[in-house]
């Protein structure tokens, strides 16, 4: 076994790898960028090496610097995690040329699976079913259109170099083919530098079922399947293992196909064979097709670990250090059912926009497995994937594991950024999902219901008001001594209320003309005589009420509110976190409604920010190159009547 390894990654996956290393007595070296100086993975590792600026190209993608860091610290091997350099065959070769071990497959195996067309051809040869379609080299549009006709509409055009759902277009009839082809090609050229596409039959009501494989370079075993059908725009949201309705017969056939696929390329380490499955009529032995292979550890690997009892990172290290496969196929069994939900800092009602912020409060339930790279007080920066944590539950049956997931999500407390928690909770309560009736269209079909922002219950807001008044703080004497009768107006970012303290443990909150009688004893709260499950938490950013539809009230001082009331069309705010690319106006300049004021780059796209009305620029509050938060004021116009 290695005595020291370097982890060429960040966030939860770097922490996850360090966890297993610790258990195995393997020393760890972390790497980090400017944005991650104080990150959890750096604090957890035995040593850490600085790489450079926050942009991945300046840090986590700097292959030479990473290899040098491994050499300087005496690490014998490099674990790539997922993303970044994990599926870069050139990196594998450079690691090996430096006399180090890459914890993962060979460069040759990665290349074999790197392009979707070549991978499909290879899998066909190995006797693995592939989605019917065209994956040849003739990229002439007329030829491709004719192939699409032959396959039969609807078809899916896919970038051969694709990933992350980019360069994919569904086309429903011949009329739409050329447009679909053109946009898929240009997106592919932009994202991957390779415009080539393949064409597949579009599977209606598809399910995404993938099989975890593990190889030693010659032989492979599989660790059963995961169902990742709950997707939004081809991004997985909740994953589970095993797949609902899977039969032992189909499992055996799919597992054997996956193992064959891995052995066909001499696969070493952890990998995933993704299948698309026709879910329109139950699972069938001839109803699954190879889509692609991910030649790395997957984000959702913990559900497999939960049901098999295997530590996949431990296996990765053991096989990379030269040990044989740690288990034979017959040693592997499924125990119960597991779910994983991906908790993100994102603004769901605004269209799932990535969010940023400093997490003033972060607490996870202790009855679930939590994989995270974030601690309370950490900042979610705009530089990386805004994942806060993966929440994993495991139970004897699917129903119990799903109930545990729901409870774990309700018990998760985050303040300081918007999150997708309510959306995840709504999913765990979705009737179809509960029945195991999943397909990749489920979320899109029911999106409106799933994202409907349930308003916080007024009784819970009354508790928030109690928190804003400092009456919920059990760490000081606030709750005990503040019992003199008093009456105050409490203001926060979304409203106001009148609070009357009636005596020790009793207060009245008048909210929108309605009185709520609040009583408390220790940490137990009653509103209008009903016992509440809520938890009131005071933190740097305000007061949050958890346990139900969670929300945060940000205290306002009355003067600030009056100033804010004037801020209508005069202020142009940044709609999302991003980088100011350019500013097109200066103070004193006359502008008309619709004029471009500034350009913001966010989520790899440029957004023009325009004037909401005619006016004169009073102040320019941001400059090109500034990193700004959502809601940051950028340009202020003079008051209209001024
Ligand atoms: P990427 O590598 O960009 O993630 P994949 O080939 O893995 O692309 O496909 C991503 C998702 O697109 C799948 O999980 C599935 O939901 C959908 N998909 C892929 N191929 C098909 C198909 N032939 N028919 C219908 N849906 C498909």
Automatic annotation (TrEMBL):
Annotated GO MF terms: ATP binding; ligase activity; metal ion binding
Extent of the signal sequence: none
Assigned keywords, A-Z: ATP-binding, Biotin, Ligase, Nucleotide-binding, Transit peptide
Name of the protein in its database record: 3-methylcrotonyl-CoA carboxylase
Superkingdom as given in the UniProt entry: Bacteria
Ranges for domain Biotin carboxylation: 1-448
Domain Lipoyl-binding residue range list: 563-638
CDD domains found in the cross-reference section: biotinyl_domain
